Amino acid sequence: MPRVTVITATYDWSSVLPFAVGSVLGQTFDDLEHLVIGDGCTDDSAEVVARAAAGDRRVRWVNLPTNTGHQWGPNAEGIGQADSELVAYLGHDDLWAPTHLEHLVDAIGPGVGLAHSSTLMVYPDRAPQLLPGTGWVYEPRRWIPPSSVAHRRDLALAVGNWSPPDPDSSDDPESVLWAALAARATLRWVPRATCVKLPAFDRRNVYRDRPSHEQSYWFERIAAADDAEADLAAAAGVPYALAVDPDGRRVSTSERMVWAVRTRGRRLLGRPAMTGEERMRLRRRFKGLQP
What we know:
The protein is of the alpha/beta class. It has one domain: Alpha-Beta Complex (Spore Coat Polysaccharide Biosynthesis Protein SpsA, Chain A), CATH 3.90.550. The protein is built from 11 helices and 9 strands. It has helices at 17-25, 45-53, 72-81, 100-107, 153-158, 173-182, 206-209, 213-224, 228-235, 255-268, 276-286; strands at 4-10, 32-38, 59-63, 86-89, 95-96, 112-121, 129-131, 149-152, 186-197. Strands 1, 2, 3, 4, 5, 6, 7, 8 and 9 form a 9-stranded mixed sheet that branches. It is globular, with a radius of gyration of 18 Å. 40% of the residues are buried.
């Protein structure tokens, strides 16, 4: 029985999976299993994971029979299949410094139900930003990137596990789960830069084009650094050179800006704000998941 189960939810973007698997297998804390869970994948993700694992039996591929359309489905399945005390998440297009799990496992002591590290948010149209900022104090329903989180598995089961997005709410399922966990146990921030997040909601049509050049860059940069945490922290605020993809196309504007324009237009027309369901449809179109 491993101490930690790492869950990677994925859907039809196999080119990024070798970097996610490599991030997990490169951890200094190695008492783990890695469940890569497809959300009804139809591409070659299973074969890519098998090649990336190179026979390491700690890595296991699971594919849901139907697509849920959100990471809540694979994450809930992963918690159900896990045999571990702790659960951590790594988005299929995100990366970790080698010390990520080591720090989070150390942070989850008596009375602590969830720990999260600092995340380098890498945007295509501006310099990376390290979140959260100095003086961060968690408030219920505030967003914390799942890739930066580890928590007790039994606590997640006690609050009902992951749930699907509420069509009448703008809260993400992860924010709902973190709030439920924080209501029962202490939430601890580990102020170390151990996570790199490349938000798909800032990269138009990534699920259609399926690039992996950014993941390759950060994976190699982390591997080459004498102190990966210090290097990631130093990257905050520095202009990002990969805002243009290998074909010379500039990555388009953020989905958040699209939301802002839509919301302002509705307000000017006297219409109600977008529902959670409408936001989800917009998000899927922006990322290339549906026409």
